[in-house]
Specification:
By secondary structure, this protein is an alpha+beta fold. It is about 55% helix and about 10% strand. It is elongated, with a radius of gyration of 29 Å. Bound molecules: adenosine-5'-triphosphate (ATP) and magnesium ion.
Amino acid sequence: MKTALGHEIFQLVREISRTMDMKVYVVGGYVRDHLLDRPCTDVDFVCIGDASVLAEKISERLPGKPKVSIFKNFGTAHIHSSDWDFEFVGARKESYRSDSRKPDVEPGSLEDDQLRRDFTINALAISLNDNDYGVLIDPFGGVKDLENGMIRTPTDPDITFSDDPLRMMRAIRFACQLGFHIDENTYAGIRRQAERIEIVSTERIKDELNKIVAAPKPSIGFKLLFNTHLLDHFFPEMVELQGVEERNGIGHKDNFYHTLQVLDNVAELSDNLWLRWSAIMHDIAKPRTKDFNDKDGWTFHGHEFVGSKMVKRIFRRLKLPLNEHMKYVEKMVLLHLRPIALTKEVVTDSAVRRLLFDAGDDIDDLLLLSRCDITSKNERKVKYYLQNLDKVQQKIIDVEERDRVRNFQPPVTGDEIMELFGLKPSREIGIIKNSLKDAILEGIIPNNREEALKFAIERGRELGLKVVNYS
Ligand code: ATP
Ligand code: MG
């Protein structure tokens, strides 16, 4: 197993810690990723002594003498240097009391420090000291677990998870990110302690959740979150998607597993976190719009509207950003049926123009989502729908080239219409604006100013308005 450390920082730490007569080790995530050959630019150093003094001396020798940020409360010192993050921390011993979420912390040995870490693969250390430079210190069989792809707590899982329940999310996140298994005993601990996740702050949960969403195959993480019942505590709407109901011998598909399939499909084609969130949310309202009738069987009418309305509430609760990313997800959920709906009829230019107008610059993402939404087990069906979507895509390219409606703005604005008729904002102005937009998208009038003005005046007259200002 390799241990050679590439970056010059390690030699520098060796040199300076020698002059201070201080023992220092690289520990945790960097060692893990180094052994797995994964890129990692976050390095944690554990020092048996004062971390901040060491960090100050290191910074003196780094290009541009970067600032050292000292966090007294945590006994840590941080340096950011040419895209790398170095964290220096004094070795510590932690003990948790049942009446407090914060551990009691006292200085400790390297062994104490390794013992407080969450998983065996995260408790590996490499010495930077002269007598054993480069030697891997692996008290809990972390290397074996790395080789076997195993997530395991170094001590009793029930205590580990009860002490800091976020570790349950971290176990699942690592399993998903690295494609590892969770050891049976560790997994049983998560099942038993799942309820404790309630004491963890939403921000910390959200960070782990986003790492799962960003993983190569996010379904692995979501299945584990579901099976351990962790998901119930922070995303019950997703749990509700699971299950199949049958009536008169007719079932519907399990929307939880369908959603995960769509999510994995998107993840294969795009790293866009918010497109992945759109996949998670696209059918979120199916349980609450579900209905059955003898003629149509199961229906989920309006689930795209109801679902897009649910996005904000869910984003707020999960402390996801309430900004343009959220608006994008709302839009994707609202429009997700439109491309496939187009394939079921003769695709008219005006239907394509409407879709282009509504999706704007996100049209390509929307098409990608709708391709990923085709998850039938029947391969012929899948092929058929994909071919139809190809046709829609080509039609969109043709129409866009000709009519440029992607970011369409009517050539006469609402303000201008008000001025034309000397009116303040009113129902009539709204009606004129809308019919003008429709007329252009339907191809009734060409997309130019002169025709648009003529149309607005005509429509105003029909509504009994008089032109007072025509310039
Ligand atoms: P990543 O950087 O990919 O998120 P990481 O394992 O490096 O993963 P960090 O948050 O950078 O995670 O933490 C660095 C190290 O600190 C971990 O490898 C682990 O040893 C320890 N650690 C982090 N969080 C916890 C925790 N909640 N409980 C115990 N040890 C932890
Ligand atoms: Mg890290």
